[in-house]
Amino acid sequence: MSFRKTVLCVCSTSLATSTQYLRTVEDIAREIKVPVKLQNIASQTDQLEQWFEKKLPAHLVVGSPFAALRKRVPQEIPVVDGIPLLTGIGKDKVVAQIKEILLKK
Amino acid sequence: MDVLVYPKFHADNREEALRKLVDFTFTKGYVKETYLDAVLEREKVFPTGLIIKGEYHVAIPHGDVEYVLKPVCAVGVLEKPVEFQFMGDPNQKVQVSVIFLLGVAKADAVVKTIAKMVELFQKEGAVESIVNAECDEEIRKIVINELSID
User: Fold this and answer.
1) How far apart, in Å, are the Cα atoms of B98 and each of B57, B61, B83, B95?
2) Tell me, what CATH number does A78's domain have?
3) Number of structural domains, chain A?
4) Domain, as residue range, for A82
5) Distance between CA atoms of residues B6 and B61, nearest Å
6) ipTM attached to this prediction
7) Closest to B52 (Cβ–Cβ): which among A44, A64, A89?
8) Do the Cβ atoms of A64 and B87 come within 8 Å?
9) Contact B118/A at CB under 8 A
10) Mind listing the domains of chain B with CATH numbers?
11) Is A21 helix (H, G, I), strand (E, B) or coil?
């Protein structure tokens, strides 16, 4: 049975920038052959808190803005800044981070 | 998602810039009259300025779906940069030269255009060529070319 890693993609509305994060994570996951389950989350709602309250799985959170997001996610779950994926500045580093996290056993 | 190009314009500040661009999309029937307030309010809480490589920076303001009638991406080039806050850190300022006002209606409809928009931000010299275009027609050509989905 394949073990899918759940990745939460977060931006304010979950309709614009997080779709781009989702796309990028999807491409990365395909490249490194790691099955993922992707979920868009609107940070302007309490969807994020609800997710963790229901004890739903999350192996990685990609979103913006990083500082505010980091505070809302349990410490043991890695949070990666999504902005470099939009701007290209620091993108390689973020992509490498995502790969490393997804490849972890 | 329809891509509209607004003629190169002047604005003294972020509010004025957004007002002009939102009015443009409103008169063309893409958004409700209430969209302007939605965009202005959102920008205060969830800023959309983006610092990209090169000399010129962008912003991707948008409001909630309930105010949008038809999905749209309205591109406006400013004669002089206007200050926005950085999406990654609201305490950081960005001098924005090109605004990509988004009217997001449903996720599916906009994903490809947003992907193209992000590609444009990361393509060397692309935003610069828009800012330095000789006339509105040239701006339109570049934008439509870069954002059109094959």
Assistant:
1) 7, 11, 11, 10
2) 3.40.50.2300
3) 1
4) 5-103
5) 15
6) 0.89
7) A89
8) yes
9) yes
10) 2-147 (3.40.930.10)
11) helix
